[in-house]
Design brief:
Blueprint: E1 6-15, E2 18-28, E3 33-37, H1 44-51, E4 59-64, E5 67-68, H2 71-74, E6 77-80, H3 92-102, H4 107-120, H5 136-148, E7 154-158, H6 166-181, E8 185-189, H7 193-199, E9 202-207, E10 210-216, H8 217-223, E11 228-233, E12 243-249, E13 252-257, H9 263-272, E14 277-282, H10 287-308
Parallel strand pairs: 3-8, 3-9, 6-7, 7-8
Antiparallel strand pairs: 1-2, 1-4, 4-5, 9-10, 11-13, 11-14, 12-13
Helix pairs in contact: 3-4
Length: 309
């Protein structure tokens, strides 16, 4: 299938004088795990709600599998909101069964799916407990099950790792990979950059409603690269005309190359000087560093524009 699972074209949404989303265009492919990034108040939740047809754009187009979102499409979407959406006085099993039936499953299928997911997330022992009796982390796992219990084609997860300990973060990360491998489309909105880096080949970042970067994560990393290499060698870097500066990092030396200098030429210099090189690799700029740099730059630009006006 070549049709995009979700596509937004020049989407704009305002609430009174607040512009929440401003001319955002993106396409999410079937079966991919797509990262949605941005600081608090950037417009991520508004984008998600437009994808689900909870709210509609003032202008622009939102499509699911090549057509405008219908009531039937909503039955095939699972949503884990950032805020808690559980009835805390209800028992776990009956609540999940209820959510499954709301999505159109008959009682037998709803019960089978509920049991399957409780077992999959190792929560079967709490099936007869009230939601209010669970820890914050276990409530989050139940809310995740609620998003998955009807076997949706599109799964939208807004901060799914909130309240989870490291063990359960790994459990949920593994589950997300399994869902994508089975053909589900996953939209992952989170502030945990290291998880985005391991789970999402493509990302969109928005800030103050505007699209900042979008596309292949490796391409974005190269675009925002600080033009450095990590090297372990017994070299005198001060004698290298290709090196702008250098500093120790994690047992190696991080060497920042001058504009126009290439890592291959730097490696050739090391070998020509007779240095013993035990490791040499292109330094990867962490997504968190890119995120902070882009947001800070965007805020400075907006502040300058406000001063000028």
């Amino acid at each position: 299938m070549n049709t995009e699972a979700i596509s937004l074209t020049n989407v704009h949404k305002s609430f009174d004088t607040l512009v929440a989303v401003d001319d955002v265009t993106l396409a999410i492919r079937p079966g991919e795990t797509f990262g949605l990034l941005g600081p608090n108040g950037a417009g991520k939740t508004t984008l998600i709600r437009m994808m689900m047809d909870i709210i509609r754009p003032d202008r622009g187009q939102v499509q699911v599998f090549g057509h405008q979102v219908t009531a039937a499409d909503k039955e095939h979407m699972g949503y884990l909101p950032e805020e808690r959406g559980l009835y805390t006085r209800q028992k776990v099993f009956s609540l999940l069964e209820y959510f499954a039936k709301l999505k159109g499953l008959d009682q037998s299928k709803a019960q089978r799916n509920t049991l399957h997911w409780l077992e999959r997330l190792e929560m079967i022992e709490v099936k007869d407990k009230k939601i209010s009796e669970l820890s914050k982390g276990n409530q989050q796992k139940i809310q995740l099950i609620a998003a998955l219990v009807a076997d949706p084609e599109i799964v939208i997860l807004d901060e799914p790792f909130s309240g989870l300990d490291p063990v359960n973060r790994r459990v949920v990360s593994t589950l997300i990979r399994e869902l994508a491998a089975s053909g589900k489309t996953i939209i992952l909105s989170t502030h945990q950059m290291e998880l985005v880096e391991t789970l999402c080949p493509r990302v969109l970042m928005i800030n103050r409603g505007q699209q900042v970067f979008y596309g292949d994560l490796n391409t974005i990393r190269r675009q925002y690269s600080d033009h450095a290499v990590l090297v372990q060698a017994n070299a005198d870097y001060s004698r290298c005309a290709l090196a702008a500066r250098y500093a120790p990092e994690n047992g190696a030396m991080k060497v920042y190359l001058r504009d126009g200098a290439h890592s291959g030429a730097f490696l050739a210099w090391l070998l020509e000087t007779g240095a013993e090189v035990s490791s040499f690799e292109q330094a990867i700029t962490p997504l968190e560093d890119i995120f902070i740099r882009v947001v800070a730059g965007s805020e400075r630009h907006l502040l300058t524009e406000e001063v000028r006006s």
